[in-house]
Amino acid sequence: MNLQEEMAALVKEYKSSGLTQKSFSARKGIGYPKFNYWYRKLAGEQVREPTGFLPVRTQGSSVPAEAVEVVYPNGVKLRVPSEDLSLLSNLIRLY
């Protein structure tokens, strides 16, 4: 069995294990970066888990919003007046 076949078998086992990639790779004695590389390679880069912020698309509204609210992953809520979106942009970059 070559390395690609071996890693494909491990990725298949991981998917049914219910473990995180870090836990699974530790149990199998494989470095997490190596396992993650093979997981992404074999999945064709389509199984990327989101980290951080995701793009948001808005549609035009006839009623302007008074404020924009952003909820950070740690639960902190941030309300910024909608006319000052540059401030919002700068605050997001701080996180």
TrEMBL record:
Superkingdom: Bacteria
Protein name in the entry: Transposase
